[in-house]
Amino acid sequence: MTCMRSCFLRLSYSKMDYILSAFYSSQPKQAKEKLLWRIVNVAIIGAPNSGKSTLINNIVERKICAASSKVHTTTKLARAMCIENNTQIIFLDTPGVVTEKEQMKYKLPTSMVGAYQKSLNCADVIGVVHDVSNSYTKDSLHREVTSMLKAASNVPSFLILNKVDKLKSKRQLLASIRNLTNGCIAGKPIPGTEKNSKNKKIERGYDNFSDVFLVSALNGDGVKEIKEYLIGNAKSATLQYSPMDWTDQTPESLIEEAVRAKLLDFLAQEIPYNLKTQLEYYDEETEDRIVCSVAVECPSERIAKLISGAGGGRLQQIKSHVREDLIDLFKKQVVIDLQLKVKNKSLEDFV
């Protein structure tokens, strides 16, 4: 095992070749009052498609947050909770930073613009997820993310470098860490980083992160360390949610979002952003079985036929994948039906 040590940083390589943990916390000291429960509210922010929802789902071990391969899958603030011993971790999954131009282009809810600010107001700690596999943005934080961090500088924050398994060069990874932290973690320079006032580099990141983690949210590498870090920085408090709760979203909303996420995965370009999903039937027949039906409103018959595919094959594929995600979400059997409807036309007219 190769290690690089300092007074605040330990870099080690695991089965994914590298997991970095900065064992330092700028969190306030725990309250003296000892209560049965400890709580931590975590705002997860980052650029679109950086892997925020996938990371949360992996930590809570449920597909609560809708995730797809396209940008702007998450359209509203949602909470996902998990219990570990006597600690309740509450994640605030936020939409990726979105401009008014993007909101118009993808026909996104207007509430997405500035939605992240609500999560920051509730957060005890902020986690910034950054995709280091993107060659265009791997060495610099999104401008809006940096602005948010500076505006909430009183809230401790940590950096999560995601998709590190896609990088071939460790040297490249270390360079990204230096750029994204401006060569500084927890107020101390990263070993090997020299600052020359005569040749100062342009700041690409944020220099007030207390910790840095390297993960692959998709396969779970490095996720355990983040969970342990959050548990270690929880505050003594009364429970905000029942230990039985794992989200603040309704089952109906979760099902609609799961369908929407799979439409984003299976359909090209901007087509899925023009579709509307609506739950038409929901019934928990037993404790172990859910039966539901979702209508997908299409802007035209051409789009409806495209979604359906030859002989309805594509629609069946979408339904199968949605069902798998819902079983993972609810931890019970799910029977789901998808119905395509054309805007301003009845189903009979379409058929």
From TrEMBL:
Region (G1) location: 46-53
GO cellular component: mitochondrial matrix
MF-aspect GO terms: GTP binding; ribosomal small subunit binding; rRNA binding
InterPro entries for this protein: G_ERA_dom, GTP-bd, GTPase_Era-like, KH_dom-like_a/b, KH_sf_prok-type, P-loop_NTPase, Small_GTP-bd
GO biological process entries: ribosomal small subunit assembly
Occurrences of domain Era-type G (ranges): 38-237
Transmembrane segments: none
Region: G4, residue numbers: 162-165
Renumbered residue ranges of the record's region G3: 93-96
Keywords from the named record: GTP-binding, Nucleotide-binding
Region (G2): 72-76
Entries under CDD domains matching the protein: Era, KH-II_Era
Stated name of the protein: GTPase Era, mitochondrial
Lineage, highest ranks first: Eukaryota, Metazoa, Ecdysozoa, Arthropoda, Hexapoda
Gene (name only): LOC113511690
